[in-house]
């Protein structure tokens, strides 16, 4: 009868089985969320996309369909309406934002996490229903864009802000170039304004606010050599083979999530052996083989009753 494994060895094997092998993503990763194509560095849930972006991007229901959202530390979530992977930009539609068709007092400030991989870009903020002293004296306001204030104040929706039709433009301020305060906020209360509109494009008729493209444009960057390496090597191969890029937890090791219901550390090509998962990943190969050697040495020592160091050497 085979010798029983010592309790210490059983404890070692249990520990290693829990900690050596990284877990797969908590849920399947997808290459779309609603009608939006999802590619690296973004993901549709935990363990999907880049570990740098995963805390900020999620796919959830907007009440009628699935949609990508950007999350912040303040628990604010902003719907993502478009992504350009060529220019590394995305557009948000904050619920607090006004437009020509619908204006409302902003009860919350727009905010971003300073530590996130996103920065404001190509967005013109129009501060509405402001104290007149702001537009007259504040260095925040760019008087060369006053025509934008006059244009948006032709929208009938201004009455929702408690303003009359065609109100004086001195209660409006074009905040350009836009910036956020030290807390990452567009603090309307501190600016003495009641609402804001944000515009990413004036369209072909700059004086017609009904044809402007409203939203907040953000630039995103991969933020490190690790992500850039994944894009140019493993991740591009994964996506080309029909997989979705993800990462294992803990350790953030690269995973290619395949539609066949399995994960690999390379891609989803038919020639790939699914049982090779994790074994040949450049970030984990050496620890894995060292620990495998250690485990088998421990087993042999326990079975044959020889000192552990004799098995090693």
Automatic annotation (TrEMBL):
<dbReference type="Pfam" id="PF14380">
    <property type="entry name" value="WAK_assoc"/>
</dbReference>
<feature type="transmembrane region" description="Helical">
    <location>
        <begin position="288"/>
        <end position="312"/>
    </location>
</feature>
<dbReference type="GO" id="GO:0004674">
    <property type="term" value="F:protein serine/threonine kinase activity"/>
</dbReference>
<dbReference type="Pfam" id="PF13947">
    <property type="entry name" value="GUB_WAK_bind"/>
</dbReference>
<protein>
    <recommendedName>
        <fullName>non-specific serine/threonine protein kinase</fullName>
        <ecNumber>2.7.11.1</ecNumber>
    </recommendedName>
</protein>
<keyword id="KW-1133">Transmembrane helix</keyword>
<dbReference type="InterPro" id="IPR032872">
    <property type="entry name" value="WAK_assoc_C"/>
</dbReference>
<keyword id="KW-0472">Membrane</keyword>
<dbReference type="InterPro" id="IPR025287">
    <property type="entry name" value="WAK_GUB"/>
</dbReference>
<feature type="signal peptide">
    <location>
        <begin position="1"/>
        <end position="28"/>
    </location>
</feature>
<feature type="domain" description="Wall-associated receptor kinase C-terminal">
    <location>
        <begin position="224"/>
        <end position="260"/>
    </location>
</feature>
<feature type="domain" description="Wall-associated receptor kinase galacturonan-binding">
    <location>
        <begin position="29"/>
        <end position="93"/>
    </location>
</feature>
<dbReference type="GO" id="GO:0016020">
    <property type="term" value="C:membrane"/>
</dbReference>
<keyword id="KW-0812">Transmembrane</keyword>
<dbReference type="GO" id="GO:0030247">
    <property type="term" value="F:polysaccharide binding"/>
</dbReference>
<keyword id="KW-0732">Signal</keyword>
<keyword id="KW-0325">Glycoprotein</keyword>
């Amino acid at each position: 009868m085979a010798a029983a494994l010592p309790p210490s060895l059983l404890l070692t094997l249990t520990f290693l089985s829990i900690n050596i092998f990284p877990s797969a993503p908590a849920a399947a990763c997808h290459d779309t969320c609603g009608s939006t194509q999802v590619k690296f560095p973004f993901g549709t849930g935990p363990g999907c996309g880049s570990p740098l972006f995963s805390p900020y991007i999620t796919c959830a229901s907007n009440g009628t369909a699935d949609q990508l959202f950007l999350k912040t530390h303040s628990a604010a979530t902003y719907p993502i309406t478009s992504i350009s992977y060529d220019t590394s930009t995305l557009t948000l539609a904050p619920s607090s934002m006004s437009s020509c068709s619908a204006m409302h007092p902003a009860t919350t400030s727009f905010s971003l996490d300073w530590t996130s991989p996103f920065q404001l870009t190509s967005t013109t903020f129009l501060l509405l229903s402001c104290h007149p002293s702001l537009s007259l004296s504040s260095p925040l306001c760019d008087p060369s864009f006053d025509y934008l204030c006059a244009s948006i104040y032709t929208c009938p929706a201004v009455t929702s802000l408690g303003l009359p039709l065609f109100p004086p433009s001195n209660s409006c301020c074009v905040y350009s170039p836009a910036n956020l305060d030290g807390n990452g906020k567009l603090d309307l209360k501190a600016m003495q304004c009641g609402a804001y509109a944000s515009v990413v494009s004036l369209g072909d008729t700059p004086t017609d606010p009904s044809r402007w493209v409203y939203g907040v444009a953000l630039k995103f960057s991969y933020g490190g050599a690790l992500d850039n390496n994944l894009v140019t090597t493993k991740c591009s191969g994964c996506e080309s083979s029909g997989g979705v890029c993800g990462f294992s937890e803990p350790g953030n090791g690269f995973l290619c999530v395949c539609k066949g219901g399995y994960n690999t550390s390379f891609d989803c090509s038919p020639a790939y052996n699914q049982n090779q998962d994790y074994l040949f990943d450049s970030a984990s190969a050496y620890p894995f083989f060292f620990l495998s050697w250690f485990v088998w040495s421990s087993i042999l020592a326990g079975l044959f009753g020889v000192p552990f160091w004799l098995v090693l050497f």
